[in-house]
Amino acid sequence: MKQPKIGLLFGSFNPIHTGHVILAHFMATHTDLDAVWLVVSPQSPFKVGHEMLGERERFELVSLAIQNNDRLRALDVEFAMPKPSYTIDTLDELRRRYPDHRFVLLMGEDNLPGLPRWKQSDRILAENAVYVYPRPGVDATDVNAHPGVKVVEAPLLDISATFIRDCIRAGKSIRYLVPEAVEGYIMEKGFWR
Ligand SMILES: Nc1ncnc2c1ncn2[C@@H]1O[C@H](COP(=O)(O)OP(=O)(O)OP(=O)(O)O)[C@@H](O)[C@H]1O
Ligand SMILES: O=C(O)c1ccc[n+]([C@@H]2O[C@H](COP(=O)([O-])O)[C@@H](O)[C@H]2O)c1
């Protein structure tokens, strides 16, 4: 039987936006991956001390964003793990839980320059292929040179969670910058206002 090949997109998703959704669906449909799982990190090691919506709320927003897409799935596996959320530990945990799956690490190009500073980055790169979605304004040529790292050709998406939060605080519309259900939930709950 064919082993499912799963792309793992780790993120703070504070909040999830259309860039994340396009990235995840593009990877799930334009590469050799069968599906993409979006892993919500309670606490990125690089965002300690940053203002962050609660992990459950961020997970709910991710679930709303990908509802009805059977290639995408939201994972809260890191909620029960030690914080900050180290990706190598989660990869080990997922391999334990899903021994029949093959995993590929997905990330936006902005994360590549910092990857050598991740916990056990050498092991991450030795054990996993990394598919990278290009991001405007980033030059990650050095790390691109690693044989396991593949930058896919895909439309550039100049949207960030920081921009979404800034729009909400400024009372500006986020329509189409986030999926409709995500916008509705954010407005209903008054997040970032
Ligand atoms: N517009 C985008 N293009 C390509 N990759 C993206 C884009 N937005 C997010 N990503 C990638 O998605 C993953 C999770 O990102 P994250 O949740 O930190 O969102 P963010 O928009 O970068 O957040 P923030 O603005 O708060 O730093 C990272 O690998 C990041 O590089
Ligand atoms: O494992 C690490 O050392 C590590 C260092 C920095 C970031 N990460 C993960 O990368 C994802 C995106 O992080 P960030 O800071 O761009 O939101 C998030 O899931 C983090 O847990 C992981």
Automatic annotation (TrEMBL):
InterPro entries xref list: Cyt_trans-like (IPR004821), NadD/NMNAT (IPR005248), Rossmann-like_a/b/a_fold (IPR014729)
One annotated GO molecular function: nicotinate-nucleotide adenylyltransferase activity
Pathway field: Cofactor biosynthesis; NAD(+) biosynthesis; deamido-NAD(+) from nicotinate D-ribonucleotide: step 1/1
Function: Catalyzes the reversible adenylation of nicotinate mononucleotide (NaMN) to nicotinic acid adenine dinucleotide (NaAD).
Protein name, UniProt field: Probable nicotinate-nucleotide adenylyltransferase
Enzyme class (EC, first level): transferase
Domain Cytidyltransferase-like: from-to ranges: 9-165
Catalytic activity: nicotinate beta-D-ribonucleotide + ATP + H(+) = deamido-NAD(+) + diphosphate
Keywords assigned: ATP-binding, NAD, Nucleotide-binding, Nucleotidyltransferase, Pyridine nucleotide biosynthesis, Transferase
Tagged with keyword NAD: yes
Annotated EC: 2.7.7.18
Family of the protein in this entry: Belongs to the NadD family.
Presence of keyword ATP-binding: yes
TM ranges: none
Domain of life: Bacteria
